[in-house]
Amino acid sequence: MFNNLSEKLTGSLNRIRGRGKISEDNIQDAIKEIRLSLLDADVNFKVVKSFIGRVKEKALGEEVLSSVSPGQQFTKIVNDELITLLGGDAEGLVTRGNPGVIFLVGLQGTGKTTTTAKLALHIRKQLSKRPGLVPVDVYRPAAIDQLQTLAKANDLPCFPSDPSMKPEEILEKSKKWAEENMVDVILVDTAGRLQIDDQLMGELKRLKEVWDPKETLLVADAMLGQQSVNVAQGFHDAIGISGLVLTKVDGDARGGAALSIRETTGVPIKFLGVGEKVGQLEVFHPERLASRILDMGDVVSLVEKAQDVIDEKTARESARKMAKNKFTMDDFLQQIQMMKKMGGMESILKMLPGAGQMMKKMKNMTPPDDELKKIEAIIRSMTVAERENHKILNGSRRLRIANGSGTEVKDVNKFVKQFEQSKKMMSQMMKMGMGRGGGGMFGGGLPF
Ligand code: GDP
Fold first, then answer.
1. I need a surface site. Which of 69, 193, 375, 383 has the fewest CB within 10 A?
2. Of ligand 1's atoms, which has the minimum distance to the CA of residue 189?
3. Is the pLDDT of residue 160 over 50?
4. Distances in Å between the alpha carbon of 294 and those of 91, 112, 249, 270, 288?
5. Which domains does the chain have, with CATH numbers?
């Protein structure tokens, strides 16, 4: 979502870095560029104004430190202010209560129902609690079905709401249901509307009064830009919200909503929806997003993602094999699977420092994930014996593999050569002591 903004901001900052010395003049240039980049990204103009004011004041007021270059110092100021703009420290989810109650509110189509299921999975996995889903959108019959289907697919308890019931009645009954099913956090998928109206707000207010939820999360669509900021303000004024979930951040929204919503409403963003699948929810960390925007990478999130999907035993085994130069094509296939689980090569690369610049250079190359797909098809067309020992791959075997994988012999040749080279390199690196202790993220790094 932030590609464009990130490219422009890093461009302005790099120009300052290149100059070696910071002066009022070149800060003025950079500040002008930053202002334009933010406005271009659809950030609210009032937010831009106060942001720029703070950056300028700090930059001109700060003593130039001798240990860092003035450009670096300026980048740090921009980074710090971005973090403040995004909300400072990450704010956790409140799940206390007996049972804990979380309301999800928002307009139709923003991703409220999907987010309810995503959040339940997050609570189960990360907070080790037993969440239960309660659909109270009785006006759109499909909404109840949708949540029940998601619940079933993910083995989550879901209250059997019926469109003939009133929301108040559902909530009343669901308390007993939660007790019987040992649910300790109830996630209420409230009714949505196409736009804010008094009837909806009245209902939400009533339900909130009876239930006193410790969290009322507004699900807002990042693609709607400034409009979602107005919606958030509207909900907050009418019923009071405690946090925001910004969805569809994976789309090509310009980022304005994420950058304006906290400062405008004062409500913290708590989660980001980064895809349609139920696993695609990220805890919102202002400092990490600021780093991503300034192309400084987000290695912490990357490592967390890796910890989530990588099985430590497999990683250690891979590292051991690499050190002994016994790494096979099957092991390689396993690593491709892990990368896929982490969202693909491109999403991994995007989290590394300088990723924006790197991606730009790679523009004319085959996208890395397409390349990996090809390699996967090639390995899958090999026999067990071939995967164990690629040395037996003679001409006729290579032709068969090319035909079987829908590639050409030259692709197979290229891959085998790359595999051999990286295998050698990895084994040397492991011997030199790199990638010890489980072998780093992928058990010693990727063999290419
Ligand atoms: P509701 O009407 O607010 O309950 O919205 P739904 O949960 O039915 O979602 C509306 C559409 O948005 C569906 O097609 C979802 O798959 C999609 N969606 C929800 N969250 C995300 C997200 O984070 N990223 C993307 N790309 N799509 C999402």
1. 383
2. 4
3. yes
4. 22, 30, 17, 21, 10
5. 3-86 (1.20.120.140), 100-290 (3.40.50.300), 301-431 (1.10.260.30)
